[in-house]
Amino acid sequence: MVHPDVESYPYLLKAQGLTKRFGSLTANQSIQLEVKPGSIHAILGENGAGKSTLMKMLYGVYEPDEGEIWMDGETVSLHPPTRARAKGIGMVFQDFRVIPAMTVLDNIALSVEKGWRIRRKSLRNRIVEVSSKYGLAVDPDAFVWQLDLGQRQRLEIVKVLLAPGTRIIIFDEPTSVLVPQEVESFLQMLDLLRRDGYGILLITHKINEVLACADQVTVLRSGRVSHQMSREEGLDGDALISAMLGDKALKPVLKPAPNSSEVRPEVLRVENGTIRGDHGEEVLADFQLSMRHGEIVGVAGISGSGQRELAEALFGLRKLASGTLTVHGKPLRGGDVRAFMEAGVSFVSEDPIKESVIPGFTILEHMVLDGIPVRNKGVGIDWRHIRSELENSEEAKSLALADAGRRADQLSGGNVQRMVLSRALIRKPDILIISYPSRGLDIGTTLTIQQRLIELAERGTAILLFSEDLDELFKLSDKLVVLAGKRLLGPYLPSETDKAQIGARMLKGESA
Questions:
Q1: Per the domain annotation, does 5 fall within a domain?
Q2: Strand partners, 291
Q3: Which end of the chain is least crowded, N or C, by CB within 10 Å?
Q4: Domains in the chain: how many in total?
């Protein structure tokens, strides 16, 4: 599996002058970079900087409007992706390309086997071998719907590694789906791949991960290369942040000290709640939850511990198997989402690309769905007024929302996240259930969102915050609960516990 260096050409891939336009928008302008064997090249930048567009050109999703791509000493066309894969380029996307109803083995077979006959025993042995070598524990016979996000990512990586001739692997924001305990293992896996001669392209916005593993770094800002450096020259975190942000300054998140004497009215309560998963399995059993006016309740837990099911139950997308749920003292039943919305509940899901985007709809059209109130004009909708409301809103301005006329299904993952967050914040709900608000977002946007959530709580919104980032949970939360072993543990006060204790409860439950 060791890939020999190409002696006559010191790179596996070289891009020169790559430019990509979408109408009047220039997403990438004259990009230069190299991918060397046995090397990790990080592509760093804010959301909307052009990282994903560049990677999609290198994987053949888009054809460059200008520029050249060189491999093995000659120019190549990588579009469509079948050509890129034939040249040995694999990509692990943010939105995993898997079929939940099929097993791990069958998903991999669809990608790497040719013809109608699947050599199941041989493929199973290869899956086990690669999984063991690179620390990618995944059960070939497990159904994908049984896997958490971290396990689904391992499946995608194994699929790429087993594809014939893979020598370059592109990772698109890979740690955005991982809990803190999994990130270190992921970086160790990258090091093993580097030692075996693979060329790695790592799209990220996380400075610490770049400093930990990258051999070369290319920073994109507004679609252009703003900085390039190598580990041999010395990687400097402050220089990378400056190259990413330009003249924009980072503002610290400020949360007011809690008023311990204040008794806030309760806005949501669950008594003796039990929730079942998509296949009837018990996910959370006999739990209690209370949320109060202007309170941020942080939810910690290892991925797949019931976060999605709990969030859906509190927005009416999923029925409680048993127990009661009240909002403002009024009992509500799952299955009637409109009743939850009318009670002032808003929801930002954990997978907005999959669950919150309607193909063909613009950002503006998405904004009237549980966001900006519709204003009629004659027999139609006054879209000019709605556009003005959106463009003048502080939420859209602070989150640097993309142009209202752009199609949402053509946005990067980070820009979709900005859209759904802007819509939720503009509504100023009584209760906001929000899952992983900073997932896949750059440092500047993350700090802006965190400050916006604090300001929303100060105005009285009760917020249930799901996050895999313990730093974020401790920074924002008034109290914490932990999902572990089908139980909801807590609440805990951040001032009376620490990240190590919460992390232990995430892993060991009540026995920690």
A1: no
A2: 268
A3: N
A4: 3
Residues facing 15 on adjacent strands? 33, 69
User: Distance between CA atoms of 67 and 340, rounded to whole angstroms?
Assistant: 52
- In whole angstroms, give the CA distance from residue 421 to residue 26: 25
Which of these, 52, 63, 90, 66, lies nearest to 220 by C-alpha position? 52
Looking at residue 249, its pLDDT comes to 57
Q: How far apart are CA 55 and CA 89, in angstroms?
A: 11
- Residue 452 in domain: yes
Q: Across residues 50-78, what is the average pLDDT?
A: 93
- pTM of the predicted protein model: 0.69
Assign residue 69 a region (left: φ > 0; alpha: ψ between -120 and 50; beta: otherwise).
beta
When mean pLDDT is compared across 6-20, 276-290, 464-478, 479-493, the lowest value belongs to: 6-20
- Cα-Cα end-to-end distance for the chain: 41
Residues 189 and 332 in one domain: no
Do residue 221 and residue 146 come from a single domain?
yes
Neighbours of 208 (CB within 10 A): 10
Assess if residue 46 is contained within a domain.
yes
Q: What whole-number distance in Å separates Cα of residue 149 and Cα of residue 386? A: 37
Task: For 53-208, list the strands marked E by DSSP.
Answer: 66-71, 74-75, 89-92, 168-172, 199-204
